[in-house]
Each structure stands twice: as C-alpha cells, then as structure tokens.
Design a protein that fits this description.
The protein has about 300 residues and is α+β, with helices and mostly antiparallel strands. The chain has nine helices and nine strands. It has helices spanning about 1-20, 95-100, 105-125, 130-135, 140-150, 155, 175-245, 245-260, 280-285, and strands at about 20-25, 30-35, 35-45, 45-50, 55-60, 65-70, 70-75, 80-90, 160-170. The strands form three sheets. Strands 6, 7, 8 and 9 form a four-stranded antiparallel sheet that branches. A three-stranded antiparallel sheet has the order 3-2-5, covered by helices on one side. A hairpin with a 2-residue loop joins strand 2 and strand 3 (about 35-45). Helix 3 crosses helix 5. The longest helix has about 70 residues, at about 175-245. It is rod-shaped, with a radius of gyration of 57 Å. The model is unreliable at about 290-299 (pLDDT under 50).
Length: about 300
C-alpha cells in the first residue's frame, strides 16, 4: 500500500513540476497569462516558473516571418493601372501587444500587415509615374513604404517590418496593349528626334568640310602658282644672266634650234628668201654680224 502511495506522490510531483517549469528557446518570445489576462508581456529565453493551472504561457516564433500578399491593382500618377505582387519580412518586437492585437495568431498579424502594405503601396504608387514605379524609383518606393509601415505596426500590432519587396509588376490585360502602343509611339518619337538632330549635325559637318576643302584647294593653288611664278622668275633671271654674257652665241643656238624644229621632217616645205635673216647662220656661220673673221662677206 505504501508503494502505491509513494508512486502516486511521485507521479503527482512530476505533473506539478511539469506544469510549474517551462522553457523559452532563443528563437521564441513568450507571454504569461493569468486567467486570460497578460501578467508578463515579455519572458526572456531560459527556464521559468509559473503557477500550475493558474498561469498559461503562450510562445511565438521570434524569427523573421514572411507575408506573401495577394496581387492587387493600383493606379499611377498618370492614371495607369498596375497589378503588383509583393511580400514582406516581419518579426515580433512587442509580444504583449502582438498577443493583444492578434490573440497570438500569426495569420491574423499577416492579414493586418498585408492590408497596411496595400494601403501604403496605393499611396506610394499614386504619386509616381509608371516608369518611376517600374524602374526609376522602385528601391526608393520600397524604402519609403517600409519606413511608413514601421511608424505604426510596432505600436498597433507589436511587429517590426524588416523589408517590403515587389515580386512582379504587371499591366492588366485590358490596358496592356494600349500602354505598349503608347510606349512604342513615344520611343519612336524620341528616336526620330535623335535622328533629326544627327542629320542636322551631319549636314553642318559636311558643309564645313566642303568649305574647308575649297579653302584648302584655293590656298594650295595660290601657293603653287606663287611658287611657279617665283621659279619662272628665277629661271628667267638665270637665262638672262647667262645669255647676256654672249648674246651672239645665244642667237646662234636659238637659230639652230629653230632649224632643227623646222626641218625635222623630210616632207616639210618652207618658201623663204635666201637672203632672209632666217638663213644668216647657214650662210655665214658664227662670225660676228654674219661676216667672216677677216671682215669680208661670206658668200
């Protein structure tokens, strides 16, 4: 009988101990309730004691959670409809407020956060154009939305938004074609403007090149004529100086050249007076004034 009593006491002690001691892991956050009311809103990790059947401990995952929002439609600054699919990373920072706001239900916390994300996206996208949302200011939009959410989520829900990201941005099917056509038209207009500017610059460059080519040709022709004139003048001066040293010999060589050019062909016929000056050197040779060395006429 005593053995049964001892076993019963030990069993009761184990049950009481199991309901008295509890452990909170490093990856967990916990609150202690007493008849449904929060009496300890932030229990540190470690071994703790509670009053059996009076206190209740609720534990929550303290690691970063992911809330994948349902794709929603938003309107940009130029009244373009966008379909945005986003997700958020969050974690619990105030366990007591988290329990009060959601009754400890992470799904409820995610739903509340998703609604606030959609409201924030609507505000942020509504002040930006389509290009800014898609590419130009996408990172800035996400940072602004994260900061905006953290202004209220910690107080209202007890969570911190670590990051908000957009997985996909699509145009609805009913406006996609018109938007693409408008974008193509805009790009074609910009391309035409660039081509027009390029053609204008090309015409100016070609005209300037043609003008410089004409100037270069004129300057080269001027320089060539000047050089040729200077060369002819120098040659004439050299000839004049050379011929002035022996005018009679110069006249004789000119006559010989004239004879050579005149009688270069056997079929050439020339009718002249035999006593003409043209035949003077043929008749008299190189004697001065057509006379012999002794002054008598050479017949």
């Amino acid at each position: 009988m005593k053995k049964f009593i001892v076993v019963g006491v030990l069993f009761l002690a184990v049950i009481i101990t199991g309901n008295t001691l509890f452990v909170v892991k490093q990856t967990e956050r916990a609150v202690m309730l007493q008849f449904g009311s929060v009496v300890n809103s932030d229990i540190e990790p470690g071994l703790h004691v509670k009053i059996p059947w009076v206190n209740t401990v609720r534990k929550f995952d303290a690691r970063i959670q992911t809330e994948d929002s349902t794709p929603a439609r938003f309107i940009t600054l130029e009244q373009k409809m966008l379909e945005v699919d986003s997700f958020a990373k969050w974690r619990i920072v105030d366990v007591g407020q988290f329990y009060i706001s959601t009754r400890g239900n992470t799904s409820t916390a995610g739903a509340l956060l998703a609604q606030r994300i959609n409201d924030g996206l609507r505000d942020q996208i509504g002040t930006r154009t389509l290009i800014e949302v898609v590419a130009g200011e996408r990172d800035e939009l996400m940072l602004a939305l994260t900061a905006q959410l953290n202004e209220t989520t910690a107080v209202d829900i007890g969570i911190e938004v670590v990051d908000v990201r957009v997985k996909r941005i699509d145009l609805p099917d009913d406006v996609r074609s018109s938007v693409y056509e408008r974008m193509i038209t805009e790009r074609n207009r910009e391309a035409q403007e660039l081509r027009s500017r390029g053609e204008e610059l090309a015409i100016g460059i070609r005209a300037d090149a043609d003008r410089q080519a004409v100037i270069f040709d004129a300057e080269a022709y001027r320089d060539a004529e000047q050089i040729m004139g200077e060369g002819d003048a120098t040659a004439t001066a050299i000839y004049a100086e050379a011929y002035s040293k022996d005018p009679q010999f110069y006249a004789f060589t000119r006559s010989l050249n004239a004879y050579r050019e005149t009688f270069s062909s056997k079929s050439d016929v020339l009718l002249l007076d035999p006593d003409s000056d043209y035949f003077r050197y043929l008749k008299y040779g190189l004697s001065q004034d057509g006379l012999s060395q002794d002054g008598s006429s050479q017949q």
